[in-house]
């Protein structure tokens, strides 16, 4: 971890003005930064520019990152439990085995990201855009994907028990061996999805579109 850069960010957070001084500095210094393992729990980081920063193993639990830019960041094993990421840009992030449980990601941008093995239980991803992302082996139990766009994403072996997926766009997604027990799939678009080996026991499928989908076997 680069302590100079970390102290600069902490100072900007303390100023409580949407990280304006940090963002101004990042405009002149857009290079990748090393903030691995930083502790920024319960911090106000709204609109912070953290693009392409190494934040692996960092602690953002309970923090407010609404509108923040984390595009291309390394979030491997980072802790976002209970964090606010409303409208945040998380496109192309590497978030393998990250803890994003109980977090709010409504209207966030998560396309082309890797969340393999991450914990997203009880997180709110309503109206999120998450096209062509990797959710293999993730746990989304009790979460909400309502009206989000997760088309072309990979949910192989994922746990999606009791997930609210009403109106969700999932065309061409892969649910091989995924567990969707007790989830509400009402009016969701599962067209051309791969459901081979998926568990759909006790799911609600009113008005769900399964056109062209590979059936669960």
UniProtKB/TrEMBL annotation:
<dbReference type="InterPro" id="IPR001646">
    <property type="entry name" value="5peptide_repeat"/>
</dbReference>
<dbReference type="Pfam" id="PF00805">
    <property type="entry name" value="Pentapeptide"/>
</dbReference>
<protein>
    <recommendedName>
        <fullName>Pentapeptide repeat-containing protein</fullName>
    </recommendedName>
</protein>
<dbReference type="InterPro" id="IPR051082">
    <property type="entry name" value="Pentapeptide-BTB/POZ_domain"/>
</dbReference>
